[in-house]
Design brief:
Helix content: 25-40%
CATH class of the largest domain: Alpha Beta
Shape: elongated
Strand content: 5-15%
CATH superfamily of the largest domain: Alpha/Beta hydrolase fold, catalytic domain
Number of strands: 21
CATH topology of the largest domain: Rossmann fold
Largest sheet: 7 strands, parallel
Length: about 600
């Protein structure tokens, strides 16, 4: 065997054919060229870092001091100032852009071998939320067969989540073309991408696939905790602000004995997440005015509302329940939530209080200016049009989805009316109205005092519980407290907010449906997928550590038997992305998508 080595570059997919040109008595080296198959991660709402046209950082959850200064603890973080920061005078889709080029921030993911992460968009996302997932996705040791055919550079598509997902979808479609061309210009084979989404990122990806030719360039999609048909949580929070911690499962002694390590972690997380929950509410909005000043002025936020196809966890399209003082129930929407609920301007169940759209600013339109309500209607029209576009979607044939369940989520919204009398007020303060209102979110049945006396004297625990509620009622029953992480309002017999006449006290009930705390089960698994194989996966309390808790709150029970197990605080809407279950689901599905493509190629 003499002479120089002859090198043959062969595309992996062509290995099924004989390699032509091999010579005997010479060195022949076959170099297998893999296809580049970029994975593009699309984060959810509030998952992209944003800056304004001047270059000022506006939204960066990785910078805790900035977030608390702009949106949190300080007096300057009013609804008016929040709106000025995020929206300006009037919504403009070009007002904010993704903050990718922050050299200091981007040091967190710098790698001396993988030096192009910043150019692949990694700097534009909330790193403390997505970072661990992205790192493990990029460094994954893929199945040997899959690795022979493909290599997987991970790209990140950050976007201005205040603007319409239709605009983000258009930009993602362009990004898909650019990424494919990037590798072709390097002399590499690249025909497709794989999309991995979280939350609202699923809406963006689905919209991108509506663009001409884009679906054919996507090999497969993995959606995580997607609000497929919207979520009543968006409505709930625009009325009441972000929820405080509630409906947390307690564990009995038997569960401690079964799995002490997991239960100890659960107990520790109960304390740490109670603090995180309070901080999150400060940043995201403690009351309806703070949330409405933002979401009510951005199409992206309004596109998270339940659309015409939304159904609650019981399969009912009427997700808004109005219960009067006699127990009679009226349900909405009959057919169109935009007309019946979102465009309603006066009745108490309206989505938006017009005064909250422009806190501290103009309330009505002038001759030469569009008023806040008109701007809101324009943004709502954009959201409705976006929803209708997705309704015409033909789902990509290689689509999969996973979701979390067993955490109290707003799959429906319930308002309860009571007579506004002294007796009714006393019952409310003692928690005797039969409804889990926000001002009764805490209970002393978990307290050490309660447990110490439990069973010692008949009725004593109940007396202690009621006494505690009565003593704390000056705070918990106040208007200030009740409308932070809750909503309560006096209305007249026409259903209009009022301070005079024969009044009813209307109270928004706490979420009680199964979901991940933000997206209910019904919406997270609503995307109609092919039935050739299992394509939907549920993450919940598979080992039933929370069985007693679920038994006391029947609506929290997942409709589908869980496929994977994660703890109560680990499987929430945002933290679930960092779990081993999500990594296993995502990595396995990517490999399965690739194996299907390999089979197709080798059968040609």
């Amino acid at each position: 065997m003499t002479g120089l080595t002859k090198i043959f570059n062969v595309r992996a997919r062509d290995l099924k054919n004989p390699v032509e040109g091999l010579e005997t008595e010479k060195r022949n080296r076959i170099v297998i060229e893999r296809d580049v198959l970029p994975i593009i991660f699309v984060p959810g709402i509030m998952g992209s870092r944003l800056k304004n046209q001047k270059g000022d950082t506006i939204w960066d959850p990785d910078d805790k001091w900035l977030m608390l200064k702009n949106y949190g603890l300080f007096w300057g973080a009013s609804a008016k100032n929040r709106k000025q920061l995020m929206i300006g005078e009037k919504f403009d889709p070009s007002y904010l852009d993704v903050f990718n080029d922050d050299l200091e921030h981007n040091k967190v993911f710098a790698d001396h071998e993988d030096t192009t992460r910043d150019k692949r968009g990694w700097g534009g996302v909330y790193w403390n939320s997505c970072g661990e997932f992205l790192q493990k996705l990029q460094t994954r040791e893929w199945d040997q067969t899959v690795n022979l055919f493909f290599e997987f550079p991970v790209h990140v598509f950050g976007y201005n989540w205040t603007a319409s997902n239709d605009l983000a979808g258009q930009k993602l479609a362009t990004e898909i073309d650019l990424v494919i061309q990037l590798y072709r210009d390097m002399g590499r084979f690249c025909d497709y991408v794989i999309l991995v989404t979280h939350s609202m990122g699923g809406l963006v990806a689905r919209n991108a696939c509506l663009r001409e030719g884009i679906k054919d360039k996507v090999l497969g999609i993995v959606h995580g905790v997607q609000p497929t048909d919207g979520s009543p949580a968006a409505y709930w929070r625009m009325k009441a602000g972000f929820e405080r911690l509630h409906s947390v499962p307690d564990m009995d002694m038997m569960q401690w004995l079964k799995n002490p390590v997991k239960i100890l972690k659960h107990k520790t997380n109960t304390l740490t997440n109670a603090l995180k929950d309070t901080v999150s509410a400060w940043v995201l909005g403690t009351d309806g005015e703070e949330v409405t000043a933002l979401l009510g002025n951005m199409p992206g936020g309004l596109e998270l509302l339940p659309n015409k196809r939304y159904k609650n966890n019981d399969g009912d399209p009427c997700w808004l329940e109005l219960i009067d003082s006699n127990g009679n129930k009226t349900t909405l929407p009959k057919s169109d939530p935009y007309e019946e609920i979102y465009r309603e301007q006066e009745l108490y169940y309206r989505l938006v209080n017009p005064d909250w759209l422009s806190p501290g600013g103009i309330k009505k339109a002038s001759i030469d200016k569009v008023g806040p309500w008109d701007s809101y209607l324009e943004n709502l029209d954009i959201a409705e049009t976006f929803h209708e576009k997705l309704a015409a979607e033909t789902v990509h044939p290689e689509t999969y989805q996973y979701y979390s369940s067993g955490i109290a989520s707003a799959d429906r919204v319930v308002f309860v009316s009571m007579e506004d009398t002294l007796l009714a007020a006393v019952k409310r303060k003692l928690g005797m109205n039969g409804h889990p209102t926000p001002d009764s979110r805490k209970s002393t049945d978990k307290s050490l005092v309660f447990k110490a006396v439990k069973g010692s004297v008949a009725g004593l625990p109940i007396l202690i519980d009621k006494a505690f509620q009565l003593v704390t009622s000056p705070l918990t029953d106040s208007e200030w407290y009740s409308n932070r992480g809750g909503y309560r309002e006096r209305v007249n017999d026409q259903g209009l907010p009022s301070k005079e006449g024969n009044l009813q006290m209307v109270t928004l009930q706490l979420p009680d449906g199964a979901g991940d705390g933000t997206v209910p089960e019904s919406s997270a698994r609503a995307l109609p997928l092919p039935t050739d194989t299992q394509r939907t996966f549920c993450i919940a309390d598979r080992h039933e550590f929370e069985g007693t808790f679920i038994g006391q709150n029947e609506r929290l029970k997942p409709k589908q038997q869980p496929d994977f197990d994660e703890g109560y605080f680990d499987r929430g809407h945002e933290p679930v992305l960092s779990t081993s279950s999500v990594r296993f689901i995502t990595f396995t599905l990517i490999e399965n998508i690739c194996r299907g493509e390999i089979r197709r190629l080798l059968q040609k």
